Amino acid sequence: MLVSSAGKRSGGSGPDDSDAGWKGINIEQAHQWITGEEIGRENRRLIEAGVPDDAPEFQELISRIRVRDDYLYERYGKRYLDTHRGQWIAIALDGQVIIRHTAGEVTWAASEAFGEGYYSKRKLADFPGHELFS
Length: 134
Hints:
Helix content: 25-40%
Radius of gyration: 17 Å
Order of helices and strands: EHHEEHEE
Number of strands: 5
Number of helices: 3
Strand order of the largest sheet: 1-3-2-4-5
Largest sheet: 5 strands, antiparallel
């Protein structure tokens, strides 16, 4: 299942776009999330420099990925919890989602569709599993 992001609006951004003459501004900020290329580059740099996994530099990288992934899940993925419970979801940086029955299936499909590291992946469950470095 490939689903485009829902809820995107065109035109005004007020609660009722039919308001005569209202040209509301979009208050939703565009995020500059860490990309797959940036993750790979920073991960290689830290490994080549001999930085231990528990060092602050690695923890900062993991934190940036987790913040990105949590935002993507809350914004685009959580709505599938009731309808696809127990399945795995991959969410692209632009909000597109892929849902599959196993982590392996969603990883393969998302890597093909979005590119490695350009998506978040987790299990649709009350306590979701996380996969960093997608």
